[in-house]
Structure formats: structure tokens, C-alpha cells
Design brief:
The complex is a heterodimer of chains A (156) and B (791).
Chain A: E1 12-15, H1 19-32, E2 38-41, H2 44-50, E3 62-65, H3 74-82, E4 92-96, H4 101-110, E5 114-117, H5 122-139, H6 148-154
Parallel strand pairs in A: 1-2, 1-3, 3-4, 4-5
Helix pairs in contact in A: 1-5, 3-4
Chain B: H1 3-9, E1 38-39, E2 44-49, E3 55-59, H2 62-65, H3 70-73, H4 79-96, E4 104-110, E5 116-124, E6 127-134, H5 144-157, H6 161-176, E7 180-186, E8 192-199, E9 210-211, H7 218-224, E10 230-232, E11 240-243, H8 266-274, E12 279-287, E13 290-299, H9 307-353, E14 374-379, E15 382-387, H10 392-402, H11 406-409, E16 415-418, H12 421-424, E17 437-442, E18 450-455, H13 484-494, H14 504-550, H15 554-573, H16 579-608, E19 616-619, H17 620-631, H18 633-638, E20 640-643, E21 650-653, H19 655-671, E22 678-685, E23 709-714, H20 747-757, E24 762-767, E25 771-777, H21 783-790
Parallel strand pairs in B: 20-22
Antiparallel strand pairs in B: 1-11, 2-3, 2-6, 3-11, 4-5, 5-6, 7-8, 7-13, 8-9, 10-12, 12-13, 14-15, 14-18, 16-17, 17-18, 19-21, 22-23, 23-25, 24-25
Helix pairs in contact in B: 5-6, 5-9, 6-9, 9-14, 15-16, 16-20, 17-19, 19-20
The chains are: A alpha/beta (156), B alpha+beta (791).
Chain lengths: 156, 791
């Protein structure tokens, strides 16, 4: 496996206010044997504070973002962070219950990298998440980080 | 052109004499009616030199009435004919009175033949014209003063022009005793119409008969602008010629314009005789210097028309002239208000039925308004008609032509009136019988939106059957032409393709109707816009519902599914019920309860829009107490103090909805509060009070000014200004679902809807960390609006 295809070890930011749904994400991580840490923000405001880096100073591999959040919704949060150059390259994946096409279009317009719908069926949710992890942690080549320290840390 | 010029340029002999020459149909428009060279033979006309009152011209009738050859009188002093007394009085009158063109009664003279005669005199261009008419010794005992007084009162009181004319005809007949008195009105084309008539009961009516312009030719019409009365006591009498025909002093034929004895045109006398009329008396009705019409009196036997009868007739003619304008205005006003009443009723019905076509439904319809025989409405590419109208293809064709007219393109007065449609739009000749006249207004709200009134060709509106004048009794030398039958034929030719003209009062009423229709259409459009806005909002709400169903309701469902999945997995593994499994079962229960409360809120929100508020006047304090009771335990748990700084007013509102508004806002205030001493304050501001700025208040929204503003204020956590709109959205929460005791996020959405059902507004003033104030108004009842208008 060459450098570029090396699985990212960086943490994943999950912006999710529902405990049940967050638990599902954790369950998918556990079942998929994903080693990346998951950092939770229960609202857009909390995510805003966490985004620059984890308390340990790590940058996020990608963001799983719920649309319907207390206060600022996911789409507005996304549009806001895309204003900042340093978050333009950050993959943000919507994971939401909304099947409203207006929401979907608005999120892509705001700069979403993908839009996934939460199924009521638990196993389908797990599968969606598994694919999401596989894709964003394995298949996709993520942008190089600006911070040299962090990049070195991820190299073998 | 003076009459003299006219005569010199005409084809008629000069000097002219009715007796010697006469006119024909073809040259009667040139007839020198002012200088006919002859007088009527029932009196004597003498022309005197003004300086010495010496006779320079005398009528041949001198022989009959004075017993002297006219020639023998020339060069003699007038005293020879009138006697010293009258001659003396004449001298004085000529010197002192304004006799120029103004006949003056001098006295009654004893003529040479020993008969009595009334003597009148006037001057004209240095000539004294003396008219001598034999009279009877006894005066008539008719009280002319009473007659005239009564007539003036009746004329002044007549409500319409028709009634005015009728009163005029009747009063003139009462004063003159003549067989038939007609009010003959000139139309703009100088054709005439009998608009009122008083007659001997055995005579047939000539009311509404029409005559061509030729029947009263231009010279005759001109002369009637100058004289007050025109007597013709015996149409059949042989005219009496002046001797000599030319005045020796002026070298011109004698101008007899102001002479009562002036000789009549043979055309006129023949016409009268062909109708069997033996005598006539005619007075002009003038309007603003123009000849509006005539008072035409006919008598079927030769009669005397003594001075006082003529004076009464002349006076009544003048009274009618003076009062005509007022009568027309009264009539227009009456017509105008009648039209407005009819139009208003029709519009009300159209508004009630929400369709313009209601204007054309029978009784009443537009046909009961402006006098027309047909009406057509073109609206949204459809025709509606009432009465007699062209067929739809013809209407289409006509409308396409009409909309190209600049008159109908005038934005302020898009009206077009034609009384001869086919002359402007030849295809209309095909339906001239029903639509020779059209009055059109553009409703201006569509490409082709028109309202049309139609009038038939005038000849269609008259029936001429059974008239006694069908067969003239005796025909004069000009034959059939000088009969009403032929007059009518001629008139028919002239008005072919023409309708009765549209009056200004009618076009104005049409324009007013147009404005009202536009108001109606616009208000309907506004109504539709309001409906559309409501629909858009309810569609948005529906969208929100769909969204809610797909999100908020699915979320707990997903959790339920997951826990069930886990339990199933454990069951498959054959393990005993673990602690974790118990927790998951608790989760299941919790989620089903949450779903239940979401569904309740949703149901409540959707049902709320169904019923209109029931307004009552209730003390707001009572409503507040109920709301606080309702909240009960929840307030106790939160340990909130409810403050009311000053007595609350009596409010016109739906008490149940208002209670819920207060309960929701108070519950919210109690819930989102992290202070140790929590309070919520309920108050109001009168329309004339300045609402204090608690924090940084938003300006009161439109529709919330000038009305009482209520507020619910707290010292809670506050709301960031960016969320002011969000908080009112269904199921929108600002905080995670377990913070501040949780909730569905429906409370404020429901509150906003309840306020809007009162036509009220709700808005927020808040500072995060310090507190929030929710302002709202309840204007749906009388409370807000009515009070503010009183203040």
C-alpha cells in the first residue's frame, strides 16, 4: 500500500444531536473495526469550537454532519465553514433523516461532499456508515494537511 | 352673411315678395324670410320715417282695414291713420323708449273704418314699423298674471327635462287655448322631435314624431334666435304686399324680422294646410344663445291671436328658455343618480356572486341603467350579452376594431361613443338594426376586456302606423313633399344607420361604472392574492409537515428499530436478558412516548388552523389565571414567580386561544431559565404608550402599530437575535432535546399561529443571558383597531 492509499488515522468529527443516532455511528465503527477516534459535537456551535483540531491537536479526517440540529442547522453550518479557506478541502458528509430534495440540493450547494439518508432500518444504517468509513478512510485520497507535524505522524 | 347679402347672392328675384314669387323645395334654404315683402292680411303694416313719422311704405291691407289705398297714404303723417292721440303717444314712445327691435304696445286706436285696433311699434335702422291689428272691444277675462305665475312655479319644480317640457306644453295651451301645443326639440343635426305635447283630446298624438332639418330651414331657425313669438292666425290667408316693396329711404326691402305680421313662407303655410292646420303660434326656446327648440302651437280653425295671448306665449317661451338649463341639469342629475343606483346594485350583486357576468342577468341588468336595447360584456375571452346585440362573431369582429381606437386606449377615459357605427366601421352596417349606436368602455384589465351598450337604428324605434297624416286632406302646389308623411320619409333617410345619440351623462356614468368594476376586479385580485399567500403558507406548512414526518418522527422510530435489532441479536445469541438489554427496553419506551408527544403536537398544530376564532370581551386577568392554573405543577417545579405589574385590560379575543398563547409563553419563560430567582412578567402597552426598550427591541412589525401590545417577559437565558425567526418554526429547537427539560419544539410555532389567527403579530426582544420579551397583538376583534381609531 503506497503512501497515498494508506488508511487515514485521523479522527472523525460527528455532528449529531441524537444520542440514538450517535450510538449507531459508534456501533458501525465498532463493527467495522475502525480505529479512528470519533469526536462528537451535539450542535453546530460545539462543532465550530472543535473544528480547528481535537484537544490532542489532531486534524479531522472528515466530518459526518446531521442536517437537523438544535440552533444552526447542518447546511448553514457547512456554508459557514466553507467561507474559511482552511476548511474548503475538508470532506463533509451529510448523514440525515431528511429526504427533502430542497435540503439535499442546498447541502450540495453549500459544499457537501456527499449526502446520505438515515434509514429507519438499523442494518441499513450500519451498512451506509460502513461504506462511508470505507470510502472516506480507504478509497478516497484525502488532501494533505497543512501542518507538517500531523502529516508526519500519520506516515509509517 | 347678412340677410341682405344672402338675398342678393341667391337665385331668387329681387326685391322678393312671397305673394309674387314664392320659393320651392330646392331654394327654400335661401328664402329671405326677414324681407318677405308681404304681411299677413289680418292687420296693417306702416313704415314711417323716424324723424317726422311720415308714411313711406304701407301694406295693401290698408284698403280693407283703413279704407284707404296704400299709395294714397304714402307721404302722409301717421296721424291720418291712427288719430292724433295715438300718433302723439307714438312720437313720445319713439323718443323715450328703447324700441329698436323691440315691439312696444302703443295703444288701441280707432281706425278710419271705425273699428278698434291694437297698435304696436318698433324701430329698425331708422325706420319706425307700426303694426295695426284690429281687435275686439272687450278684453278677455283670462287672468294672465295667475296663469304665468302658476306656469313658472310648475316649470321650476319639474324634476326631469321631460316633465319640464310637458309642463311647458300644458301651460302654454292653458294660456293660449290653442288645439295643440308641442315642444319641438332640435337635435344636433337640426332634425326635430316632438318631445312634449298638450292637445285637444280628440286629436291624435304627435309625440315623438321626428322631422328632417329641412322642415324648419336655416333662415327660419335664425330668425327664431331673435324674436320671442311668431303668430300666424290664418295660414290660408292671402298675403298682403307692401307698397312699395323697397323702402324709399334705405333703398332696401323692409326688414320685418320683428313684425308680428311678417308674411309667412309659402312652404310653411302650405305644410300647415296639408296637415289641416289653420293657425299657428310659435315661440323659440333658447339655450345659451342657441336655438334649443320651439314651442309650436297649432289650431285647426283660423283664430285671432291678440296681443295679450302672444305676450303670454312669448313670456312662457322666455321662462322656459331661462329655466331650461336648470331643468336639464336637474334631469341629468336625476338620470345620473338613477344610473348610479342601478349600477351600484348590479355591482353589489356581481361582487356577491364574484363574477362580472352578473351585470347582465335580468332584472335588474345593465339594460335597466343607461338607455340601451342591448348590452355585451367581453371578459376573459368570453361574451355575455343581454337584450338585442349582434351575434358573437360580429361582436368579436367589432371588439377587435374597438380596441384599436385611440379613444379606448386613453388610460383616464377609455370610452368610445358612436351614434353612427357603420359610418366608422362599415361591417357594422350588417347589424345596423340592432347596433347603429355603441357606447364602449374598456375595462382595461385584460387584453380585450370591454363593456358595450347598443342602440338600434332610430327608424327601428318608431312606429308610424295609423297616423291621420298618412293621407293629406288637401295637397298644395308642392304636392306630397310638404306633408308629415314625406317629412318622416326624409327624416328616415337622413337617420339611416344612426341611433339616438349618447348623452354626456351616459358616457360619464359608463366611466364611473368602469372605475367601480375595476375596483371590484382589483379587490377580487387582491382577494386572490391573499388566498394565494395563504395557500403558499399552507403549502409551506404542508412541506414542513412532510419534513417533520420524515425527520422528527423517524428519529425515534430509528432508535426503536435499533434497540429491537439489538435485542433480537442478543436473543439469537441465546443470552439471558442483560443489564444492557434492560436499558434498551427503557429506551424503547422512552422513544415511543416521545413519538406520542410529537404526534400530539402535530395533530394540535394542524387542527388549530381549521376554526375561526370566537371573539369575546374578557378580562385578560381571568385568561391569565386560567393559563397559570393550567400550567400548575410545571411552574411550581421551576419555582417561577408570575408578575403582573399593573391591572390587565379587558380584551376582545378568543379566550381559549389566548389562554394557550399565554400558557405557551409562560411555560417557555419558566423552562428556559437558569437563574436562581426566576420570574415572568405579563403586561401591556396602550397604543398611545411608548413601549420601553428592554434590550434592543425590534421595531413593532406592520399591523402592530396603533394597537394594544401585550408582552410576556422573563429573566431567562435569552435568545440570540439570529434565532428570532427560527424559534417560531415547527419542531425547531434551539437546544439539545434533553436540555431545559426537553420538549417538542412546537410551543412557539403553535403560539405564533394562535396570534396570527387573531390577525395579530408576535415578535421578540431579547438579550442572551439576561432574558427575553415576547410581544404580541390581538387585533382580530374590535379591540385593537377600533380603539385606535377612537383615540
Amino acid at each position: 500500500m503506497n503512501d497515498l492509499l494508506q488508511r487515514s488515522r485521523r479522527p472523525i468529527l460527528v455532528v449529531e444531536d441524537s444520542d440514538e443516532d450517535f450510538d449507531t455511528i459508534l456501533e458501525a465503527r465498532r463493527r467495522g473495526g475502525i480505529e479512528n477516534r470519533i469526536v462528537r459535537a451535539a450542535s453546530a456551535e460545539a462543532a465550530r469550537r472543535l473544528l480547528p483540531a481535537t484537544p490532542e491537536g489532531e486534524a479531522f479526517a472528515f466530518v459526518i454532519l446531521d442536517q437537523n440540529l438544535p440552533g444552526i442547522n447542518g447546511c448553514d453550518f457547512l456554508r459557514e465553514i466553507r467561507q474559511e479557506p482552511r476548511y474548503r478541502g475538508l470532506p463533509v458528509v451529510l448523514f440525515t433523516t431528511s429526504i427533502n430534495p430542497r435540503d439535499c440540493a442546498a447541502c450540495y450547494e453549500a459544499g457537501a461532499n456527499a449526502y446520505h439518508v438515515k434509514s429507519v432500518r438499523f442494518d441499513e444504517c450500519l451498512r451506509t456508515l460502513q461504506e462511508m468509513f470505507d470510502y472516506w478512510l480507504d478509497s478516497a485520497v484525502l488532501p494533505e494537511l497543512q501542518s507538517g507535524d500531523v502529516r508526519k505522524m500519520n506516515l509509517p | 352673411m347678412t340677410s341682405d347679402d344672402l338675398q342678393k347672392s341667391s337665385s331668387l328675384p329681387y326685391p322678393y315678395s312671397v305673394k309674387q314669387h314664392g320659393v320651392t323645395i330646392t331654394n327654400c334654404d335661401e328664402e329671405p324670410v326677414q324681407t318677405p315683402g308681404c304681411i299677413q292680411p289680418h292687420g296693417v303694416l306702416l313704415a314711417l320715417r323716424a324723424t317726422d313719422l311720415v308714411i313711406t311704405q304701407a301694406s295693401q291691407s290698408c284698403l280693407q282695414w283703413i279704407g284707404a289705398e296704400p299709395l294714397s297714404l304714402l307721404g302722409q303723417p301717421v296721424s291720418l291713420v291712427l288719430g292724433q292721440d295715438i300718433a302723439h303717444r307714438l312720437r313720445e314712445t319713439v323718443d323715450r323708449e328703447p324700441l329698436e327691435r323691440n315691439p312696444f304696445y302703443i295703444g288701441t286706436a280707432s281706425l278710419l273704418s271705425m273699428s278698434l285696433a291694437d297698435v304696436t311699434a318698433h324701430t329698425r335702422d331708422g325706420i319706425v314699423l307700426v303694426e295695426v291689428e284690429p281687435t275686439e272691444r272687450q278684453r278677455s277675462d283670462v287672468d294672465y298674471y295667475q296663469l304665468v305665475k302658476r306656469a313658472v312655479a310648475r316649470l321650476a319644480a319639474a324634476p326631469t327635462l321631460d316633465a319640464f317640457c310637458q309642463a311647458g306644453a300644458e301651460e302654454v295651451r292653458r294660456a293660449t287655448g290653442l288645439d295643440r301645443v308641442m315642444i319641438y326639440k332640435f337635435h344636433p343635426d337640426h332634425s326635430g322631435e316632438v318631445v312634449a305635447e298638450a292637445r285637444r283630446s280628440d286629436l291624435h298624438s304627435w309625440l315623438r314624431l321626428r322631422y328632417p332639418a329641412e322642415d324648419i330651414p336655416r333662415p327660419a331657425r335664425e330668425i327664431f334666435k331673435r324674436i320671442g313669438v311668431r303668430p300666424l292666425p290664418d295660414a290660408a290667408a292671402e298675403p298682403s304686399e307692401m307698397v312699395p316693396l323697397v323702402n324709399p329711404d334705405t333703398g332696401r326691402p323692409l326688414d320685418m324680422t320683428y313684425c308680428a305680421l311678417r308674411g309667412a313662407s309659402v312652404m310653411y303655410t302650405e305644410y300647415l294646410q296639408n296637415m289641416g292646420v289653420a293657425a299657428s303660434l310659435t315661440m323659440p326656446i333658447l339655450r345659451e344663445g342657441g336655438l334649443w327648440g320651439l314651442i309650436a302651437c297649432h289650431h285647426y280653425t283660423p283664430t285671432r291671436l291678440p296681443f295679450e295671448v302672444r305676450a303670454a306665449g312669448e313670456f312662457l317661451g322666455q321662462v322656459m328658455s331661462l329655466q331650461l338649463k336648470n331643468a336639464e341639469e336637474r334631469s341629468d342629475l336625476e338620470y345620473r343618480s338613477r344610473l348610479d343606483v342601478v349600477h351600484h346594485d348590479l355591482l353589489s350583486r356581481a361582487a356577491r356572486e364574484s363574477r362580472l357576468a352578473a351585470l347582465l342577468q335580468p332584472s335588474p341588468s345593465l339594460l335597466d341603467g343607461i338607455e340601451a336595447s342591448g348590452v355585451a360584456l367581453l371578459h376573459r375571452d368570453r361574451w355575455w350579452t343581454a337584450g338585442a346585440v349582434p351575434d358573437e362573431a360580429q361582436l368579436e369582429d367589432l371588439s377587435r376594431w374597438l380596441v384599436t381606437l385611440p379613444e379606448l386606449g386613453d388610460p383616464a377615459r377609455p370610452v368610445f361613443a358612436s351614434e353612427a357605427l357603420a359610418s366608422q366601421f362599415p361591417p357594422a352596417a350588417a347589424y345596423a338594426a340592432v347596433a347603429s349606436g355603441v357606447l364602449a368602455i374598456s375595462l382595461g384589465v385584460g387584453r380585450r376586456s370591454l363593456l358595450l351598450w347598443f342602440r338600434p337604428e332610430q327608424v327601428q324605434t318608431f312606429t308610424w302606423g295609423g297616423n291621420p297624416h298618412e293621407k293629406p286632406r288637401v295637397l298644395g302646389p308642392h304636392g306630397l313633399r310638404l306633408t308629415p308623411r314625406k317629412s318622416f320619409d326624409l327624416w328616415q333617410e337622413q337617420v339611416r344607420g344612426r341611433s339616438v345619440p349618447w348623452k354626456p351623462v351616459e358616457t360619464e356614468a359608463a366611466l364611473r361604472l368602469r372605475l367601480s368594476i375595476l375596483d371590484l376586479v382589483v379587490s377580487r385580485a387582491e382577494g386572490l392574492a391573499v388566498l394565494n399567500a395563504e395557500l403558499a403558507r399552507s403549502n409551506e406548512e404542508l412541506d414542513a409537515f412532510a419534513y417533520i414526518a420524515s425527520h422528527d418522527l423517524k428519529e425515534p422510530l430509528r432508535g426503536i428499530h435499533k434497540y429491537a435489532h439489538y435485542l433480537l441479536e442478543e436473543a439469537e445469541a441465546g443470552a439471558a436478558l442483560s443489564q444492557l438489554a434492560k436499558e434498551r427496553l427503557d429506551g424503547l419506551i422512552r422513544l415511543t412516548l416521545r413519538m406520542d408527544s410529537l404526534l400530539d403536537a402535530l395533530l394540535h398544530f394542524s387542527r388549530m388552523g381549521r376554526l375561526d376564532p370566537g371573539y369575546e370581551r374578557v378580562p385578560l386577568k381571568t385568561v391569565l389565571d386560567e393559563a397559570v392554573d393550567m400550567l400548575g405543577r410545571r411552574l411550581d417545579e421551576n419555582a417561577v414567580e408570575v408578575r403582573v405589574p399593573r391591572p390587565l385590560p379587558v380584551v376582545e379575543c378568543d379566550p381559549i386561544r389566548t389562554r394557550e398563547i399565554l400558557a405557551n409563553l409562560i411555560a417557555n419563560a419558566a423552562k428556559y431559565n437558569d437563574k436562581p430567582d426566576r420570574w415572568v412578567e405579563i403586561g401591556f402597552f396602550d397604543p398611545d404608550e411608548e413601549a420601553p426598550a428592554f434590550y434592543a427591541p425590534q421595531a413593532a412589525p406592520d399591523g402592530a402599530r396603533g394597537v394594544t401590545v401585550f408582552y410576556v417577559r422573563d429573566n431567562g437565558i435569552g435568545i440570540d437575535v439570529r434565532h428570532y425567526d427560527q424559534v417560531f418554526k415547527m419542531f425547531k429547537r434551539l437546544h439539545s432535546r434533553d436540555a431545559f427539560g426537553g420538549g417538542t419544539g412546537a410551543g412557539l410555532a403553535i403560539t405564533k399561529k394562535l396570534v396570527e389567527q387573531h390577525d395579530g403579530r408576535i415578535w421578540i426582544d431579547s438579550k442572551p443571558g439576561e432574558g427575553s420579551t415576547f410581544f404580541f397583538t390581538l387585533t382580530g376583534g374590535d379591540s385593537g383597531i377600533a380603539e385606535s381609531s377612537v383615540r
